[in-house]
Structures are given as C-alpha cells and as structure tokens.
Structures
1.
Amino acid sequence: MPITVEKDKVVAVGDILNDRRRSLADRFRALFTLRNIGGQTAIDCITACFSDPSALLKHELAYCLGQMQDTYATPALVTVLKDVTQEPMVRHEAGIMLFVNTFIHQNCRVTDRERQYKQQTDTCNMQSLLVLSKNII
C-alpha cells in the first residue's frame, strides 16, 4: 500500500530519477524512494525513465515496478516487454515482473504453458515471455 506523500514531492523525486546529469547513485536512491512511496504518480515517474541509455538502470526500473505489486504498472511492463529496442535484460526483467504480478493479483492456476516455460533452460527467451503476457493479460 502506498504511503501518503504530496504529489509535488513525488514528482520532485521523479525529476531526480529522470535527470541524466545526476549520478547513478542519486538516481538509484530516487528510484528506491519512488518504489517505497508507491502509487500512480511514482509509477509514472519510473515509467518515464525507460528511455534512459543505462540498461542497468532500466533493469532496476522494471524490477522496482514489479516489487510495487500495483496493477497500474502492468501496461508499462507490457510495453517494455514488447519493445525490441530495449536491451534483452530489461525486457526479461519486465517479463518476469509481469508474470509474477499477474499471478499475485489474479491467483491464476499454473497452466501447461507456464509449466513448459518453467522447464526451458533459456530464461531470456523473449518469445516465451510474449506468449505468456498475451495469455495472462
């Protein structure tokens, strides 16, 4: 559940996250602060950063969106997963977080397709993640 923080303060933290002139350490602190605050404004600030050139930062953006366990983040995770211009590790993390959160929120049963996916040795198989996302959204 999100904590109560004034919207302008959340946006100010989001501005730090999205400021490429700031150090990665500052930006990661801003990301984790937004994750802890939660809510739609925080998710919007995090989502806006997926155009950043740092694959490491974008991987953590996806991870934090998943940790927030908020269905408002689902469209952003789907967009990142489907975006072939994103680095594979970023898309992979978005897919994993999408998969995990969908089951958390929908209490879905594991289907044969998910069992097949879990048996794959290539956990970065984007096609499998795309198939899963189409079946669970």
2.
Amino acid sequence: MLLMYDADTVALLTATLEEAWASLRAHEKAGSSKTLLASHILELASRGERNPIRLRTYALVKYEVSKSEAYKNGSI
C-alpha cells in the first residue's frame, strides 16, 4: 500500500526521525540504522499517529525490543 503524506507531515516525520536518532548513543547508532528507526516511525504514522512524542517513543521502544530479540537469538 502506497501512502502519501503532505509537506507538513513529511517535515514532522523527518524531525521526529532526527530527534530519535540524536537520542541514541554512539554505540547504539553503530548497531542500528536510521532506516530501522524510520520504518518504526512510518509504521505508526501509517495508522494515523502524528504526535511526535508518541512517534519517537514508539520507534525507540521498537528499537530496544528488536535489539533484545537479536541478543536472544544470538544474531548480535
């Protein structure tokens, strides 16, 4: 499914991604990617969420969960 966002929403999502990325420590950035965070933000945004705090929190929580699962599975 292709979703279209207006310019204001794209600006909000971009700022949210940059804030989420900036909140990670250097070693966390080394073990992740902006693309992963962006996919989490877009996942929630596709359901209509536009609150930047909720979007950022969701992305960071999903990042932590995926990191924990990777440790459990031995892929890290």
3.
Amino acid sequence: MGKETRLFKSQERKNREEVSAFITQLAGKISAGQVVFKKGQEEIMLNMPYNLVLEIQVEDELKKQKGVQHSLELEIKWFDDDSASGPLELG
C-alpha cells in the first residue's frame, strides 16, 4: 500500500439543503474539469480527468455517548496518467 498525503481537509455542520447545494455545485465543477477548494488562506485546485472512479460507502458506527453515527461517503479517485479522452465510439 502506498503512502497517503493529506492535501486538504474540511469538516463542518450544514443543513440538508446546504449539503445538497454544495454537492450540486461540486458536480458542476467536476463536469467542467476543474475543482477549487478554499478555506481561509488554504486553497487547492484539482484538474479532473475524463475518467474517474466513484466509490460510495454507507456505514454505521456506534459512539459510546451519542449512539449510532451514520455516514454516507462519496470518494472520487483518479490517476495522473489516465489520459483517455472519452468512451469508445464507432465511426
């Protein structure tokens, strides 16, 4: 397993409508090919390739004080050398 380096992290409480609006805006940025995350002075720009791997995970975790914490995790992965320009088409 390779070494993982965290480049940016953010966690904040938002209501359902705010989360939905953020994910919708993020989807538009991914579709356009470039995502920029900003928080205070911290900023990271990601150039998104055409081919991505989407991983979805749903978990329940028992927390001693608060009970069961539910999570829905969306993870998007890619490799630098994935230079394919699109799906195979017949001409």
